[in-house]
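Hey, sorry to bother you again with one of my protein questions. A protein chain has come my way and I'm curious about its shape. I'm sending you its amino acid sequence along with the backbone structure tokens. I owe you a coffee for this, so here goes:
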Amino acid sequence: MMLALIEAVKRALEFIPNVEMVTLLFILFSIYYGKRVILVSFAFTALETFVWGISTWNVMYLYIWPLLIIIVCLSREHGSYIFYALLSAFYGLFFGALCSIPYFFIGGPVMMFNWWISGIPYDILHCISNFILCLILFKPLSSALAKISRLNKNRIAY
């Protein structure tokens, strides 16, 4: 269900450059379901590869989303929604820097740096949109996930 929700929301917003809720959903899922969400991130990468084909971004997704999930899992005992809004913003701002890592191995530090710098305007938009979406949607989505988690804990297995 997590993968379906992430994919549906990604498709719904893909017409707006660098405005996405994947980051927010991975943050929320990681808060409620912990490190198991890393498996969802790999499934997400596989599904995206099936839809869009193979390119350098496939490698990027294999470490970018698990890194976010690990950060959230390490901070979830002490994080507030403001902390997660800021994390979401910084993740958007430095998304291009994280994505530039494979280019270090492809063309060296100059290619890595040039690739990252050329995308900074998109990273700024990504930062702002992540921050706003997280500020607006974190609490209601967190509340919904809390209810779902309680229901799952109370459910009787047959």
In short: Residues 3 and 122 are 25 Å apart (CA to CA). Helices lie at 2-13, 22-33, 37-52, 56-75, 81-93, 95-99, 101-118, 120-154.
